[in-house]
Design goal:
single chain, 2 domains, 3 helices, flat, ribonucleoprotein, Ribosomal_bS21, Small ribosomal subunit protein bS21
Length: 89
């Protein structure tokens, strides 16, 4: 995994790296590997994850085809207008 550091901005590079690792599932895998997982538990977990993925895919497909209503969009909070500028006289 590669991350470019621009203008010696390490904070931004770290944020990008964490986001990439999150998308790849590195943190989830590290958490799972902390303790031993029995093969039977692993099979049931993987099966439930596959079912969850299939349901999510089917739900998205049904929404696209118009069989299900789309979930309501989240309303963003309105921004307050900026304070008026005070000029010194």
């Amino acid at each position: 995994m590669h991350v470019l550091v621009r203008d010696n901005n390490i904070d931004q590079a770290l944020r990008v790296l964490k986001k990439k690792m999150q998308r790849e599932g590195v943190f989830r895998e590290m958490k799972q590997r902390r303790a031993y997982e029995k093969p039977s538990e692993r099979k049931t977990r993987e099966r439930s994850e596959a079912i969850r993925r299939a349901r999510k895919l089917a739900r998205k497909q049904a929404i696209r085809e118009g069989l299900l209503p789309a979930p309501p969009k989240k309303k963003l909070p309105e921004r307050k207008p900026p304070l008026p500028q005070v000029t010194a006289t």
